[in-house]
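Q: For a teaching session next week I want to show students how multiple molecules come together into a single three-dimensional assembly. I've collected the sequence lines for a complex. Could you give me the predicted structure tokens for the whole thing so I can convert them for display?
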Amino acid sequence: MGRLNQTQQEAPREPVSDELIDRCKRGDELAWGRLVELTYREVYTLCLRILRDPDDAAEVTQDAYVKAWRGLKSFRGDSQFSTWLYRIASNAAISRYRSRKRRQDHEVASEDLDLSTRPGEASTEGAAGTRVEVDLLERALATLPEHYRTAVLLRDVYGYPIEDIARQMKASVPATKVRIHRGRKKLKELVWPEDGADGGEQG
Amino acid sequence: MTNCAEVREQLPALIDDGTSELNLRRHLSRCAGCRDELARYDTLRRSLATMSVVPTEPPPGLLGAISGIPGRDSRVLDVRHHVVRNKTVYVGGAVAVVGALGALAWRSHRGRVATA
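A: Of course. Below is the structure for the complete assembly, covering every listed component.
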């Protein structure tokens, strides 16, 4: 996957109202169009982050919305609509990734990663209040093995409960925690490579 | 457990769970290096959390394709319902066609045997 064509700005977050969802449930196609307009960028981005292939991501996004349309009547509002929709999308993306797993060429070796636009020290120091740039994070995440990448994405980017991630990834909760922790460690080493060899002063 | 390397192995989990382990807290309170390391994980976690609202621009045409799902889906469902409703007619027709083809084949076979 090439460089992500990111807007680098936060999307306007008009919430999906209950009224809009009710209209969709009644088969209102205009309401459906509005609902899609409000949500499809984020859903596509989630699929792209898991799959790292724009064509696959677009296809899986469509599949996810077909499932959402057909299953809309079963959405009772116990969780946020976006949470429900993301769950359908991440499930579809993980399944797609598994089905094409044999295509090893989608994996990018981490030594190929170009982090040349790493932000300056001031913005990446671990002091409170600073942030790592999204573009750098996207590229670092893209180099992680899929089982680490998806676990970190779903936990730290999308805030899924660990039990949900374990279910979607068909892994145990302890194994999922290990994936998240190892993924974070690898990510930290990519973002701050100077930390690579952990120092070892004895305390 | 007060070795920096061992403490740093625990840090990726610490940002989820916090820690009540006395040795770990004591080490962190004394070791600036491990505190910095923990701060980096915290920065990483906060930065990752901002990514969910930074979308990548989808390919042109995707919005139209998804918006059109109800129309396409209802046509697919209409066809499916039609086939299910008229199952007897379709199955009966298929049986009749297969039967007719079989009868033709049998007659042609009999004809060839008779002339031989």
